[in-house]
Specification:
alpha+beta, 18% helix, 3 helices, 27% strand, 4-stranded antiparallel beta sheet, 3-stranded antiparallel beta sheet
């Protein structure tokens, strides 16, 4: 059983991102197609649902600043640690995660970074993480290690290759 809860992008934030993303750009939806027209994104992670994009879904690639939004809600001051990056979301409102068991996008062998942030939103550590065959146990150990430091308030999981935000875990 998963010891930590991976958080999708909140519905209120999704509504805002569908108006304008965190870089101020309006939403430009398209239909996910396997043949690459207009963009081959089938199988890419949806941060609203924490699952892969399926053929025929209307999606959008938006700029998202998870630490900035967390800081605005908590009063933290991340300063230079504030960053934004591309994430896929459904272009219209969706039901959110279908399955809340396990960790999303946990393909064994995939490379991730586990970034730790304190209550001010400053990076207080991180580590390289290769997802093991038992992905759930591997993530659980990585989060136990991260939250063993009392200074850690939240953790971001990012893809190593492109730095794309995967999901967030908060201290519980």
């Amino acid at each position: 059983m998963t010891a930590y809860i991976p958080l999708p992008i909140a519905p209120t934030v999704l509504r805002e991102l569908r108006e304008a993303d965190d870089s101020g750009r309006p939403l430009k939806p398209y239909c996910a197609r396997e043949d690459g027209v207009p963009l081959n994104c089938v199988g890419s992670p949806l941060r609203c649902c924490l699952r892969a994009i399926e053929p025929g879904e209307r999606v959008a690639l938006v700029s998202y600043a998870p630490l900035r939004r967390w800081a605005a809600a908590t009063g933290a001051k991340p300063g230079a640690y504030d960053e934004s990056g591309p994430v896929f979301i459904h272009a219209e409102e969706c039901e959110g995660p279908r399955d809340t068991r396990g960790y999303p996008f946990a393909r064994p062998g995939a490379l991730r970074t586990i970034r730790r942030y304190d209550v001010e939103g400053h990076i207080v550590g991180g580590r390289f993480f290769e997802i093991p065959e038992d992905a759930e146990a591997g993530f659980d150990r990585a989060f136990e290690e991260a939250f063993a430091d009392p200074a850690v308030a939240l953790v971001h999981v990012r893809a190593l290759e492109y730095g794309c935000f995967q999901f967030e875990v908060r201290r519980h």
